[in-house]
Amino acid sequence: MFKNSKESGFTMTELVVVIAIIGVTLAIAIPSFLSYRPTMRIKGAARDITTILQWSRMKAVSENNRMEIQFSPANKTYTVFDDNNSDGDVSTDTAIRTSTLPDDISFGIGTTVTKKASTNIGPAHTDCLTFNVDSCNTDDSTSFSSNGTANNGTIYLVNTKDECFAVIVDSQGRVRIRKWAGSDWVD
Fold it and tell me: Residue 167: CA atoms inside 13 Å, Cβ hemisphere, count?
C-alpha cells in the first residue's frame, strides 16, 4: 500500500559547488562590466540628445512653429523651448523640458580627437558645441523650423575615459551620432 520513496534534493557539497561557480563567474564579470559602464553611459547620453532633437523637430512640424534647444555646458543641461510665435526669441516662452547629462559625462572634446566630426577631415573643433557660440562656457542653441530644417552644428560629449561622441544636426534637420574611434569618426 505504501511505497518507500527515496528522498530527493541536493547535497551540501552540490550546493557549495554551485555557489562557488556563481561566485567565480561574478568575480570575472563585474570588473569587466564596470569598465564598460562609462561607454554605455556616454552612448546613452548621445542617444538621449538625439531623441530630444528628433522629438523637437517633429513637434515643430506638427505644431507649425519653431522649437529651440539650448545647451548650457557649464550646467551640463539642455532645454527645449516652444517658440510659440516663431519670433526667434524664447526668453519669454515656456521651457518644455530640461535634461541634465550624467555626472561622468560632459559637453566637450576628447583629448585624442584630431578631426571634425561632421566631415571627418580638417582640424578638430576646440569648442564643445558648434551652433552659434564658439565657447564651452556660454549657452549655445539649435532650432528646428516649422518645415523641419535646422541650423546645423555638432554637440560633442566626452566621458571620464576620454571617449568622445558627437551628435550632428544637418541643415535638413537630420540627426546622427558618430564616435571617435582613435583616428577617425565612425557611425
Answer: 24
Among 81, 80, 85, residue whose Cα is nearest residue 64: 85
- Among 64, 69, 121, smallest CA distance to 93 is for 69
169 sits in which H/E element: strand 164-169
Q: Where are the domains of the chain?
A: 12-186
- pTM to 2 decimals? 0.78
Q: For strands 105-107 and 140-144, give the pairing.
A: unpaired
CATH says 12-186 is which class?
Answer: alpha beta
**Cβ-count burial 148-162 (b if 16+ within 10 Å, e if not):** ebbebbbbbbbbeee
Which helix (H) or strand (E) segment holds residue 164: the answer is strand 164-169
Read off the C-alpha cell for 70. Answer: 539650448
- Average pLDDT of each block of 10 consecutive residues along the chain (187 residues)? 64 89 86 76 95 95 91 92 80 87 90 81 76 56 91 91 92 93 88
For CA atoms 43, 49, 52, 57, give the dihedral sign. Answer: negative
Alpha-carbon gap, residue 170 to 153, rounded angstroms: 7
